[in-house]
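Researcher: Next sequence.
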Amino acid sequence: MELNYKVLGQGHPLLILHGLFGTLDNWQTLGREFSKTYQVYLIDLRNHGRSPHSEEFSYQLMTDDLLEFVEQHQLQDIYLIGHSMGGKVAMNFALQHPEKIAKLLVADIAPKAYPPHHDDIIAGFRSIDLNAIQSRQEADDQLAQKVEDMGTRQFLLKNLYRQEDNSFAWRLHLDAIERNLPYILGNIASDTPFTKPTLFLRGANSRYIKPEQDLPQIQALFPNARVETIENAGHWLHAEQPQQFYRLTMEFLRG
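Model: Next structure:
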């Protein structure tokens, strides 16, 4: 699958993968900062952003998509950053294709399986009558009935766009995502660990990585990994504390 992407800057290749319900646009601000040092590739994963839609949706397929992308662009020794779902894609890619990667950074996700916790977001998407709304504000008003947090709503509504006939549509393939969500919440596994430098960044206010519980599984798969915490940040740590995220990332990549 030929993924949509944006490239910024020059230098060593740095690829960034967004999370579930996200797009490459979520990383534009930090991408521009990283592009002062590296050649940054912001990528839309399948069924997200402007990348193609498919009824098939799994970590293996997204890993295969990424391998196709890396080989098409003839990239070597990449630095790879993935957030949330994108972090699991990045972990799976590193475990299967370690020769392609120099350093791996995983943002606020562990390789473990997670219980279902996106029901309100799916219900929020479904609650918006795309044929009836006339503005983004109307979409936000409808979404607010299911998703109270304004920041989360703003993030989700980045997927809303106007078509040529002026009607609204979703950029993401909601049906395929919802149908395959149990697999997306699943664990990442491998018989062979990824031994190159790896950094897990977690938000102090997030529960996605619990060091005391998750460190054994992380270190079994990524024995050269360390976990660092960004204070005053939740799951969207790169958006909530971009300066801290940038500093820790640069220290890791340059170290």
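Model: DSSP finds ten helices and nine strands in the chain. The longest helix spans residues 59-72.
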